[in-house]
Structure formats: C-alpha cells, structure tokens
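WARN retry 2 of 3 for item q-0093 after timeout on previous attempt; input resubmitted unchanged.
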Amino acid sequence: TNLLKSSIHFLFLSSIHSFIPIHPLNRNSPRVHRINRKMETELDWSVVDDEDATASGPGALGSANEAGHYVVSVQQPGAVLQSVKCSFLAPGSVDVIVAKSRRLEVRQLTNASSHELASLPVVHSAPINGRITTLLSFRHPSSVTDYIFFTTETKQYAVISYVATEDADSNAAYNLVTHASGNLADYGMALRGNEPESGPIAALEPNQTCIALHLYEGFVTILPIQKSYHPQQSSKSSTNVKRAGKNLEILGHAFHCRIEERDVYSMVFLLSTDTSGRYMPQLTFLHQDSRGNQHVVAHSIDLQEKAIVLHSAVSPIGSNVKKVAIPPLVQHRLKKNRVDGASGLIVAVPPVGWSGNQVADKIVYEDVNTDGIAPFGGILILGEQQITYHDTARNITEILPTPQRLTLSYAHVHPLPVSANNDDQDVVLYLLGDEDGRLHVLAVIRSVSGKNAAKRLHIETRGITNVSSSLLYLERGLVFVGSHTADSQFIQILDDPVRLSNEEKSDENDLLMNGLNLTDIHVLDEYKNLGPIVDFDVIPMSHNSYDVANDSLSMQCMAVTASGTEKDGTVRFVRNGTGFSEYASVELGGIKGMWNLKKSFHDNDDAYLVQSYIGETRILGVSIEDGGDESIASDREEINAALSEVELPGFESENSTLYAGNVIIYTYHDLSLIVQITNQSIRLISLATSRCMTNWSTQQGESLTIASANESGQIIVVSKGGKIEYFQVVRADNDCLQISLKGVAHVGKEVSCVNLNPFEDHSYSTQTAVIQDCSTSMDIDYELSTGRSGRKSKIVAVGLWDDSNVLVLSLEDASPLRTISCVQLSSEASMQQRFCANVAQKMARSVCLVTLGSSTSRYAMSKGEKESQDGSNAVDMLLIGLGDGVLVSFVVNESQDWSWTFTSRREVSIGTRALSLVAFEKQKGEKGTCVLATGDRPTIVYLSGGSIRSSKASRLCYSNIHLSRDEEFENVTDLSIEKNAQLIVNVAAPFRASLLLDDCCEDSYSLCISDDAMMRIGVIDNIQKLHITTHKLGMPPRKVAHDLKNGLLCVGCIDHGASCTNYPTRIETNMGNCVRFFDDSTFEEFDRIDLDPYEMILSLIYAELKVLKDDSTFDSMAVKESEDAELRGSFNSYIILGTAYGFPEDDEPSRGRIIVVECDKDKSNSTFSRKVKQVAELQVRGGVFSICPFYDGTILASINSKTRLCRLIGGYEDGGDLDLKIVGAGHHGHILSLNVKSLSEEILATDNNPREKLAIVGDMVRSISVLKYYSEFQTLEEIARDFNQNWVTAVEMLTDNIYLGAENFNNIFALRRNPHSSSQEVRCRLDTIGVFHLGEMVNKFLKGSLVLPSHTATNSGNLSTFGQYLEGSDAGHRKMIPNIGSQTLFGTVDGTLGSIIGLDANTYTFFMALQRSMAKIVLPVGHLKHGDYRSFRLQRSCQSSRGFIDGDFVESFAELDPVMMEAIVQEMNKEGKWYKPKSIDLTDQSDTANNAKRPKLTVEEVLAMIEDMTMAH
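OK item q-0093 returned
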C-alpha cells in the first residue's frame, strides 16, 4: 500500500510520468509483482465466418469480423538512444552509427572540408529485433573496418559488421554480417539479480581485449574479445545462432563477477599507455551507497582467471603465480570517496604522453618512462556543482566549481586543433552537453614534465543546442548532437562567435547565454524527432471523394503532437502527402489540357503555357513589366514579371489542342521548334522565325481524337474508329522539314489514350553527350540525364475503350505498326464478376511510359542526402490510370532479342475519378523523374530505395498532394479546411519560371494545375510520404487539443518559472502550469490561462456539450425524451481541462478541477480580437486524470479511483452562467483510473437500434474495465473487466466489444467482450484476443488515419467482399485484396507515430502466413529472432505474440532481393495456409486432404497486397 501511495505521489509531483519511460513501478525499480494469469480463451481465426458477424456501428467493423490487427509505423522512431563514431562502411570513412529504439541508422560525413557543404546523410539503415540499450564500436585485427557491438532490452547482444553489396551473400541481411550473438537473460535469473535503476551500461577496454556490461545490481559481466578470430573461417557456421555459454568465436565465454557496488551510475575503463598487456584493465565505477553518498572506485579485470580483482585486494587471486598481467600497486589504484553528490558521469582521460596518432582510425598511445608509476590516465567526474579531475598515477586532484547544472552527454575532441598544444603543456578537450542544451568546452591542461600533472581546468560555454543524449565530435569542428527529447542536430563550432539569428533569439536562449546575443554554433542540419509524444490530437482535413461519410473517421486527418521536454517543447503538425506551395492562382475554368513550351529547346525556364479549351486554344506567356530587361537585370528582385495572354504566330488558336511541345532535330539548326496537334492538323512552328514551317491535315470529314508526341519529333495521332497513324519530323533533301508518315495501324476499337515517351538510355544516364550545332560548328555539352536529349521511343502504349487491355505497338517496323504485347488489366472472369456494373470506369483513361529514378526517394529528397546517380536504380515502367481512380503499374524490360516483357504488376486505388498521368522532373540539382496522377486525390508516383550501399530493391511509392499556400496568399482562418485542403486536379503540366517563382524552384518540382474553376502555379515540397511542421513553445507541453469549429489549438504547458535572478543558482521554484491558445492557421498565440500554484494539467479535450436549462430537465429526460427543443438543450463547442493539485505533503492528489472554456470569436475574424473565457468550473476531490465525451452531450471524468458523469446546466439562451454538475452515482473501485474512453462520437443520433452507453476505464494496476451507464437510474456500473494485472498507459475502444490497451512493459493487447454468452461468468470477463510487444511505451491511442480511406471501404460496419479470395481469378491476376476495418493512431515515447489497422479473417490469415515465412527465411540482424522480440513480455513471464501483424516487418518484404522474395513465397505456398476459402476447413491439420485445392501465390501478388496495405497508412 505504501509503495502504491508513493507511486501515485510521484505521478503528480514529477509532472512527466506520461512520457518518461522510467517510472516507479517499471522494470528498473522495485515494484509490485504482477499476477500473470493464463489466458482463458484463444480465438481460432480459421473458423471466423464473415457472414455470421453483425455490425457494431457506423464506420466500424463488426466485433467478430475484426479478426486481427496490423501494427505499422507511420513515422519511425526519431529519439537517439545511443550513437558512436567509427569507420563502419569503409576504411577511413567517418560514419555515425545511431541507435533509434529498434533501428540502426548509419550516417556518413561528406564534404567535411567545406563547412557550408558538409552533410551527414543516412546511407544505410537496418531494423533490429529488440530495443537497443547499449552501443559500442571496436576494431578487430582481422578487419579494416569497425565492428558494432550492441545489447537489447532483453539482455541479448550481437557483434555485426558491414559488407559491401558485391561481397554480400544470402546470409548477410541488410548487408550486415553477424559475428557473434547470445542471450544473457538466463544468467540474471540464475543470479537473482535486480536490474539497475540507471539501466544497462557497457564499456570497451581501450586495448580492445574485452567488453564490460553492467546488467544486474551487484554484478558485472565480462565478454573477452578473441584476437585470433577470422571471419572467413567461420562464415559457414555464421548462419547458426549461438547460445550463451558456447564459443562465440569473436567473443569468448562470458563470465560474471560480483562487485560490492550496487547502484552504479557510470562505468568506464581507464586509458593506459601500456600496450604490452603488463597491467590488468582497470574498470572504474561511479556508484552511490545506501546513505546517498557517491564514490568512484576502480577494480582490475583478470581475463586469464576470468575474475575481478577488487580494489581492496592485496594480491592477485588464483593459483597461477606467473601472471601475464598484474593489477597496479594498491597506492596507484583509483578510489575517490564522497564526490559531488549529484554526479552522473565519469570520463576516462588519457594519460600524459598521449600522442594523438591514429592508426586505422584508432587512438594509440606511446610508451613513456613512468618511473614506477602505473601508466594509467585520469578520470573526470562530472558533478552538478563541480567538475573533478583526478590523476590516477600521481594521485593529484583538481576541482573546478561550476553553476548548478546536470551534464547529460560528453564527447572527446580528437584530433585537437594545432594551436591547442605546445611543448610545455598537454591539453585534452571535451564537449559537454547539459540539461538546458548548453554546449560547453572543457579543457584539461596538464604539465608534460613536472610534479603537478594537472595545472588547471577551464570551461567555457559555446552556444545553445537541443538537449542532447549523445554527443559525437567528428572533425574540423563538426559535431553530431543526438537527442532523445528533441530534433537531433548536425552543427559546426565556429572559430569566432556570431550573432544569433532572429529564429534563434528567444527569452530562453537569452537566459541561458547570460544575455549575450552571441553564439559559436552554426546548425547545419536538423533531423526530425517527434519524441517524446506526450499527447496528440487529429485534425480532419477536407476531401472531395464521392460516397464518403462526412465524419472524422471517414476523413483524412492531420496529427498535431505535443512533443519534447523543457525548452525544446514543440507542437508538430504531421500530415501524409506532399505540400503544394501556391505562388499564384487565377479563376480559369474549363481547361481541357495544358502544356509547357520553351523559347529554345535547351532553356532552363519555360516561356509559354498552352491551354486547350473546347473549340479554342489560349497561350499564357511570361513577360517582364515596366520596361525591365531580363538580360541586364543584376538582381532577380528587380524584375517585375507577370503571366499574361500572348499570341504566337503560326499557332492555331481557333481549335482545341490535343498536344503541344518542343521538338529538336539534331541535324537542323533551329532549336525553337514546337509541334501543335489539333483536331484537324499537325503543325510544326518555329518561334525564331514566327511562322509555321510545315503542317499535315486530315482528310475531309475526319478529325483527330487523341494525340501524343515527344521531343525527338515522333508523333502519334488517332482518328475515329481506332485508326492510329505514326509520323516523324524529318529533314528533307532541300534542307526543309517535313512531317513524314511512317506507319499505320487499325486496332478495331476506339482509342482512349496514347503515349510514346521514350525511356532513358541507362548506359548513358550520367555521361555527357557531345552535340554539334550546325550553325556555329561548336561543340556544346548537354547532360543526357536531364531528360531533354531528344531520345526516340521504340514503343507506343495505346489504351482502348470498352476493353480492359492496353496495346503496345512497335515503332521500329514499317507500316503497318506491329502489336508486340497486349497488357491485360483484368481477366474476363473477373470482368464479368466485378466490373459489369460500370465497365467504362474500369477502362484505361491515361497511359504513361516513363523511367523512374530512385533519386526521388525520401532519403534523397532531404537536405544533403543524395543517392547514387549511376543509373543502376532507374526503372522503366508503364503506368495506366483507370476511370475509377485505380492506378496499374508494370515494370518494362527489353530483352536482347528485342522482345518486351511487362512484369511486377501493381494495382492501387488512389481516388474515385478518372486519372490522368503527367511525367515531370527537376531542371537542376538531383535529377529524378516522377509522375503526377490527377484526380480527386492527386498523387505523386516515385521510386524509393535501391541504395548502392545495400541490396534493397527499389519500391514504388505514392504521396498525396495537399494545398499549403504561402502566407502572403493566405486569407483564411481555418487551417483544417482551407490551408491544408485536399486538391482536385483535372489537368496538370510542369511549368518552371524562375521569374515568377522563388529560387527554390531551381531544385524543386514546379507545376501548373487546374480544376473546374481555378488554375494554380506553385512548387511542391520535397517528395516524401510524411511532412512535419514544427512550432516551438519554449516550454514542455503536457496536453494538446484542437477546436475544429473555432479554429484554435489549445496546448497545456509546464511553465518552469525560471528567471534571470534565480537561474544561476537554480533556486527551486514552483513549476506552474498554463494553457496557451493559438490560431490554428497562423499559430499566433492570442490568449493564455495560468493555473493556480501546484496545479497541474492532467487532461485536455475538445468536445461538443449539450447545455440543459436546469436539473429537473435532465431528470425528466432520463425517463422520457422531451419533444420541447428548449428542454432538449443545445450543443456548443468547448475545451475541457482536468487538473490536480500536487501538494508536496499529499501522497495522492486531494483536490482538482474540471474547467470548461469557450472561445468567443469576434466578428472581425481578427486573431487578436479572439477571447477565451471560462464558462464553468467543478471542484473535485482528487486529480482528474482523464476526460472523454460521452453520450447525449455529457462527459466522463476519471477522478482518482472514481469515474463520474458530468453535464452542463444553465441559461444558454440569455447568456446566463453555466454550471458543471456531477450527475448520478459514479463508479468506484479502481486503484487509479488513468484513462477513460467511449464511442459516443461515432454513434449517430438517429440510430434505429438503441445502443448500450459503454465506456472503458484503464486502471494503474487492474487493466481495463467496461462500464455501462443506465439512464433510468443515472448510474455507472462495471459489466466486464480484464482480470490480468496490467499497468495501462493508453486505451481505446475499437468497437462496442473490442478494446485496445497498452501497458507499462511496452506491450499492447486486444480484448473482446462476449455480451451474447449464456454464461454470466463469460459475459463479465474480457478475453484477451491479441498480445504484441511493441518495444516502445505508448502514451495515447486515438481513432483516425493520416490517409484518406479508400472508396472501396464500406461504412456500414460489414466487411467488403473484396477482402476474400477470388475463386475465379486466373494465375495472372490478383487472388487477394486486403480488407481493413478500424484505424487507430498511437504515439510513443521514442517518437513513433503508428497506426493499428483492423483486418478481416482472410487478410489476417494472409499476412500471418507471410510473417511466418519471412521469419523463417530472412536471417535477422544479430541472429535476434523476430518471434522472440514480438513476444508479450512481463517482468517474469513471456508468451508468443498472437492476434497482431508486425506491419514494419512484412512491409520490408518489398526491400528484399528477388531471390529471397521467391523463397518466401515458395514457403507460403508450401505451408498453404495463406488464405481461408469457405470450401476448405483449415482446422483440419492434414494438409494432404486440401493440398490439391490450394492456389499458388506469386511474388507480384504478395507485393500487390503489401502495396495496398502501405496505401492504407
């Protein structure tokens, strides 16, 4: 009881329990033993029948239908746990290995000689089946690169190294070779050791003879490093997972030594100049005794006897007196008692005489004449109020008093600047990062010769960074700042200070720098980290899809997170898709087509924009106003350019244009040729001579319907009846140009679309072509990689009406044109079964032949992160847009015998309207071609992955476009509806005009798009799936809520209350809480509410509450609903706060408030005229931990161990005062009710079937309970509960009967209620239907999705029939289409924003089979098994995961090499349990009975399933 009370007391006084992964009752502290009861029932997914399920409500699947759940990361974790600097990828390379929760990220320093161009891009990454806790690098004699040693949360460890792609074999997963692996958890059970409160600690012996681990209190584990290990000799046995206790080859047998120190905070090996191995390694501990005093002591490690020689030991232990190594003399052993009581780190300092030389990128030391003194260096003790340096050999101590601060990280500055050392002194520099983000440089200045080894310590502050958890000094003043609670940074330490920029100026930074407006730090780059996600909310975004319900669960959402701690607190807006920054817009409706034209073929800028209307064509041109002259303008800002309508001589404007574009004929001198195709003619126009050079006209009575051309002068026109004619612009004998007919084809059906874009020549994609200009006889270099080289196409793609085929014709043969392939979009059986209702919508509306390059990947698109441009990752593709918004893609391959194949079929639904495909590219910078698919959900199709440093295959990615206007064009107040509105694009064309757009368009994609009424010109953001916008708060946030109707964002913060007078001494002050209100479009703060002293924000929500006139009205409504509108009340929008008073003398909160706030928006719509007023307040006895909207405009509040129902009462019509009152009898009986959730927002008021008014409560110890509200009695009653003991951190109701929970050991679980059971015992028990180890602590669940739900999904609650196996499909088409249900977002401490998607039985069975096959075939990094990592782990128990699919794992299938993909699919076919047809009983374990009936999967079908799931999140 006392332990629970102290834990409750901690929850309120710390104010950070929701986002710090270590708290009183966790794995690292003494805690109450959890009761792990055996799960009562298990759901057999194979017998779930979709037809027997009933719907649970609108917008949700039936409880029986949601057979499993798909867990996937939308945003990968960004919190840096550990980092090391080494040469991992290649000898001599400067690589930074970053551990982010369950991922290893490799960054490589490039352009280090130029500070402005220096970058640290991600060049490799790999998933780890475990949460990484420690990370070390070392160089083995057998290798020219460094090895990485890491441990995980489950006490597993591994040693890995990188192998190049060309040297990698099938056993090297992600190009990483495992040299050793093992598990030390069993030793902990045998030793009965408790886990240390400070977490695992690892240290590497300087001579790289062993690794020390502190995993259990009172013990240290030593792993010897075997110098005789050779990777080549053990490659054959590398695939076998080694067990602990066996020979690990590179690592010897682990041995455990008992130590006297229990509470160890830091551990390092002393550095030594001894390279002969004369002395035993000295392992130093910073520990705390039972009285709270801290001490430093060093023990010797005897590797020969596999024991530890304690500091107090007089002589070495063991029977062998001829020791290879001996401990130092007793007088030379390190021991310091009663150091600074708040010390947290110790740092090993090199001894005097350290040379600083580098051999194979490792520090070595020169032997010095010690004169009987042990050759060990000193130690730095980083305290809160002082820094202590102790010279071990000479027993000399130097103390430097410092202002009160806690040092969190440090980095050794090596190599030193040339001016740092001289002949008389030895200087060692360290970078120190403290809890306020200040970066200090500490200098240890010692005498080279003399009695006083330590002359002095000197420290100076260089600037402000984000609060760091890891510091790495790279070289030349370049530093990597890894952060767990903010964005990581790549900075440059300047030689001379500079003034702070406007963005860096703040009251906080001014305070930290003592009022100096100077800094020595220049931030080169920042790397996004959402963690810790303390709280988040979703903002519905407008959309234009058909047949989608107008509610938040059916709309695409943008997440807004409360992230960070202390001064790095931020609000992040996270949205899926790519932003379109609008620079200009005009009302122009009815545009049927647009094309960009240049004055000269090789110009960078476009000069004209051709617009086709019904019966006419208009041209807009870029012109310079006010007599400006572009050629003589020295500054672009001096040019006043505009886009106005112009006329081009020779251009036909009286007819509609089917195509317009630039043409180049290399044997012809004119580079200003353009081709225009209208309904009646083909015209070749010269802009230089302003006349039509030649033309071709149709015969009398004929008209052209479809046309396409390319820059080499190839032209395809289509007439009615399916007649296709192929023309070529050629140079005649008389030096004139003519349009020559080359071939004709009759396809017999009407043509819907045609395209003949040429593929890139991969063999010359980065080479330079020499083109001779006939007019000047000069050689001009043009890069072929720009895509503007006039290449010829060998094929043309033709889409047909009333036919689900796309024809591919060869252009290399004489007339008639030969059909070389017929690409089927669907089989005949599936057409009759699925498409008979609307055949026209399933036809090809647009085709595009394009070469996509992986340079447009999400890594390559970020600053400084470049992929290889050698053409090896470019893929030729055929993209087909259908009339129903489905995009079909094929990989195109040309064989040596000139035959063409179309493989790797993908089919995704990206909208509901017909698609039009437009290829576009950048003109400068990183080259890469993308394709824009227009429609009601315009989407960019690009290629990602395929880095030269891994064997990962390139994958096709999709990113939606959203409108994000520039601020100067912003004239709206509702961010959720206008500023991030979903675009509709009917017509699009690439258009680059540097005179109209900013300089960023030179290295960006600029477009002109048009819908039914508007034409917009702008630049799209970096092409990536997720975009994050950051707004700094300057204080740690606690809660966040968004008011959709009033357009405001409410953020609850902790105002630390620091001031210039008390900051240097850090006088303890009350950390008051406040609530800040921002405009959601401009993020300008317009109001603030400060809470009382010691009052803390525990909950914050937005809700629409019903206001009743008086208490009697509510009492009568509980029995019978009134028909009087005045008595029924009205709904208004409010912000509701729940608080608690955390007085120091209280074990648990005894007071709290529920505050109701309303935004009073002025009619002028001005931000500064908006007011926030408190309309009601309710004093309660306890802390209001959670609030949720409930039925009929009420709210539920969890107050300590109680759950109460509250309602607003008052005069809502005459502006009278409102009163918030508790209604009826609440529920009692919990230990501490941390969370409460209901489905009130999802239940329609006009529901014909009366619904149970249910809510779930997450308790601190007693897991999840289900409460039911009885209106007639005004009572809340518990009707079911989970009898497992779980410390619940987040809960969510997926349906009335399926619930989701997250608990303290980083697990998630799914529960199911059985309301229709005949047994009362079963009805009151929640069955566990799914358990899964997430590996990160979840702070919140919230219903919603960052992507727009597909139009194929149903809103009735029943499963879609497309989610089943298609019995009549042939081998060449899809056998499975995933069917999804509920979608829930979650946020974690490490910055992961994820999604949990409900699956039906068929989809769950498929992905579970894929997950099993991948776990069996794919060799994991470090030989850490996937099944062990995802097992549901408690303190003393573990059970296999079930009911959940690891989405990150199965989606990595698309990144594997083709050989491994084929092996996995073969394993799935061999197992035969990837689908559940109704004709086969999967409960029958005899595979031979149904083996003949099982269909066979292909790699393309598995990839298509994964692609569909990727589009769902």
